[in-house]
Amino acid sequence: MLIVEDWAEIRRLHRAEGVPIKEIARRLGVARNTVRAALNSDRPPKYEREPRGQVADAYEPQMRALLQEWPRMPAPVIAERIGWPYSLPPLRKRLAVIRPEYVGIDPVDRVVYEPGQVAQCDLWFPETKVRVGAGQQRILPVLVMTLGFSRFMSAVMIPSRQAGDILSGMWSLIHGIGRVTKTLVWDREAAIGGTGKVTAPASAFAGTLATRIQLAPPRDPEFKGLVERNNQYLETSFLPGRQFVSPADFNEQLSDWLVRANERTVRSIQGRPVDLLETDYLAMVPLPPVVPPIGLSHRIRLGRDYYIRVDTVDYSVDPQVIGRFVDVTASLETVTVFCDGKVVARHELSWAKQQVITDLVHATTAARMREALALDRQRRQAATRHHSDGHAVALRALPDYDALFGVDFNPPTTKAE
Question: Closest Cα to residue 123, out of 149, 150, 148, 155?
């Protein structure tokens, strides 16, 4: 076969120097027909191997018959049905070529994000356990948010994946930026839209901020690929080699790292998120003057043990409001209890499980109330057993009163005949 260098030399000698075909063949040691073929070809020669048959050729009709009825049948099942005697890679390679003829091709458009348009949100669960006190270590969720236009990333660890904690985390990140995008994209997280419809707490949160929450289609992680890639980036670039003594320590280290992460150049936008953030910010929606409904909250009648439960932790309340309704609110930092608008308990939020948090003032008040009640009972008992002049009250047996009033509770029985 003629090589590229000979082909180029033949064309140069004949067209540039006018050397005859016979002389070119003699100089290069090739046949004259080879020289003529090189002169007639406007492209350099390329070696093409004769296609050889593949092991999948004989099985392709059976594969197509199965795909005709079950287009998405997995490769191992097809191999079993057709009696495939080889390893799976050749079969998978052939299926990748012919399967689209039966299932169709679903093209994906390139998404262009306008400034202030969208932010993608997701929960990341780092494998490293965090110390939460009481000798416990837990794997806690981290709320990650990525702005579509600038790719600016923010994140914060939260106590749980309950709606109140997720919304508190979202407010923390949004408030840190200073404005909110027109759309917040979420997957089917149970507390946000597990049924395919945005939950009431999430709707109230979005309505207060004048934005909307858009739910991704089920089982479609590419719909929010920006934040999914950032989750992987956190997993590989932030987490390795770090230890955390508390959730606060985790968030502090994460905050410092995010400053550097947002200063890196992102290839897809050919820029740094920190530089594009201002453009994103100016197109966002300003925040309202009121805080949206966030945190865990509920109303309960305070029982005799004067404790309320948030998640799995019990917190003491002023025992003076036992029996009355109290309103419980829990943020990412504190648990506060109100009764008729007055604060009757405030505790630091415990990230540990199954704990009992007692305020010493509440325990002292409860002890004092029990002592006062015991003294009151003694006074009342003493008052009921003595006349006002001090002499003891005579106590008589109940049968004496029955005889006095002619009441007989033991009538005579009649013998059976």
Answer: 155
